[in-house]
Amino acid sequence: MKNKSLNLPWAKINSFTGNHTSPALTTYRPCPICGGLHSRTLLVFDDFQFYSDSAEQPKRTQIREVQCQSCHAVYLNPCYTNTGFDYLFAEAGQSYGSTDGRPQEQIDWMVTRGLLDDDKVFLDAGCYDGRFLSGLPKSIRRIGVDIDAPAITRGQERYGSDGVELIHGAFETFQCPVAPDVISMFHVLEHLANPVEVLCHLRSISHDETRLIVEVPILEYGKNNDINGFLSAQHMTHFSAHSLGKLMARTGWEILERQQMPDYNGHRILVKPGESSDKVMGDVSDRTRVSEYFENWYRNQAEVARKIESWPRASRIVIWGGGMHSEFLYQVTPLFQQDLQCEYIVVDSDPLKQGKSWRGLPILNPDVIQDVDWDDCLLVISSYGGQEAIARAAVNLNVPDSVISRLYDFVKVY
Ligand SMILES: [Zn+2]
């Protein structure tokens, strides 16, 4: 039994050499909130890899987070082009946040405010495949729009006969067949390169009494203990309550209600058409909030680094988790640098990842770890929310407790 794990394709970090970048992936832009051209750099990753290795497709790019010197909004610059988005996020699963938040809570919230009363025209901007719309009452007219063509096609097949109307189009130019009474954008705005154009377009297709619901994560609640922090590589704008308010004022939306969701980072606002104003000033206290955010994030990195240093050295490591968390593990912790001769495999239960590799490490079905000889080998769980579920799955695959290595002392599960 001793040498069984010799048969697994152990590999050293960065042993795949074909990964590369392309200038077509990103483009510079003015501040997405105020249009300002001056910013300060907050954070740079020079060589960030998006998911699996590829010699054919550009999968690496620089990630640079900046803060506007005029309005203090925090944003990604350069941001992804449409081409870049297609290459970098092809393996990310759902392009927008349709898994974020809580659909039933969102529906109850809208019912309480009369937003789902009979015969209302409801538009979901960023509808993905229409699954959220499919859960709304049939007594309203349900329309969705998204730029993700395959998702729209799938949704039309799945929900079309049920009366859900799905439109494929860009959020800043699509044609809506009728002025909507209610528009929802749950966890969409932070993914868009040009939120001003999108909100102006939504205002132009609305009537005087249209209500728009926007929910985004905000900087004020961005502190947690996950190394893949609030400044997510998937988000093009990192809103604060203030920068969201300024964006709304600039695009002609008047805020009626603001609400912080208690159990996950979601800041929800209900707005209606109003006067547009460039007069709303940026909030300089967003500078302090950014410092407080980084203070917390770097402390988390130090805690994780101390934990890694405290583990027994092993000549082999199994990484469980082939997603973006592992790229953060590579970028912000010493795990892969402390012994360049160390050999790894990655396991992940997502069949779309299996058979590929990440930074040269083969991604395999977790079942293979039943064959691993755990003498001189660790299992590192590379997931925040999934840490305990993975630990249980590892025990079920006969991994000894003593080699299961957790990065986090506690996990806040949403
Ligand atoms: Zn700005």
UniProtKB/TrEMBL annotation:
Entry's Gene Ontology BP terms: methylation
Pfam families linked to this entry: Methyltransf_23 (PF13489)
GO molecular function, one term: methyltransferase activity
Keyword Transport: no
InterPro entries in UniProt: SAM-dependent_MTases_sf
Top-level taxonomic group: Bacteria
Alphabetic keyword roster: Methyltransferase, Transferase
SUPFAM superfamilies cross-referenced by the UniProt entry: S-adenosyl-L-methionine-dependent methyltransferases (SSF53335)
Name assigned to this protein: Class I SAM-dependent methyltransferase
